[in-house]
Amino acid sequence: MQQDKPPSLSEVYDAIKQMKNRKAPGVDNISADLLKAGGVPMTKWAHEILCDVWNNEDVVEDWA
User: Where are the domains of the chain?
Assistant: First the structure.
């Protein structure tokens, strides 16, 4: 599914909320538990990063 705009803050919040707890983190070492425990500040941080990646069309090499 391709979108024409970056995800909204509420979409990021919903995506984090749906993540399964107690699973091993990926290469970024950020677990779902950490994202959820961070609450609104962590959700805003994740949203800011996702929007930056979207707007600049630039992905960190480790994520590619």
Answer: 9-59
